[in-house]
Amino acid sequence: MIRTRLNHPVIKRLLLIISFCISPWAMGDSTELELLGNKVEQLRLAMIDGDSKALRALSAPQLSYGHSSGNMEDQAAFIDKIASGKSDFVTMELADQTISISGDVALVRHKLNADIKDGGVPNRIHLGVLLVWQKQAGDWKLLARQAFKYPPQAQ
After folding, report:
1. What is the model's pTM?
2. CATH code for 38-149?
């Protein structure tokens, strides 16, 4: 009896329609996750290279870029500080990255370990970072970034 119901033409069509509807979402999610991972890597490299053209292409004009110190920058200030070398990322490693997507917004979290020169003064930083990406005109753009210091670890 079950076999007869599953072979019914209406049920077959319904199952076919459901499979077509579900599979693009599943593939889209993994494709979008991979695409966002690549965008984060492009951002990391552009920051190390001080590449203003790439930084502009990856970020939204509405960018709000928050530092762990509490300083905030817009897109122009963020790009100028990196491209001019005022804030020079010598190395940058990202670890424990997670990406979640909700519609046209994606949240990326990771740990950032970097050797930097701020105003020519070398420093090693260990921060948590939240990146907010938004799909604008079909392309993921960095809309916001907030870094934070981890609390001191008990000894």
Report:
1. 0.79
2. 3.10.450.50
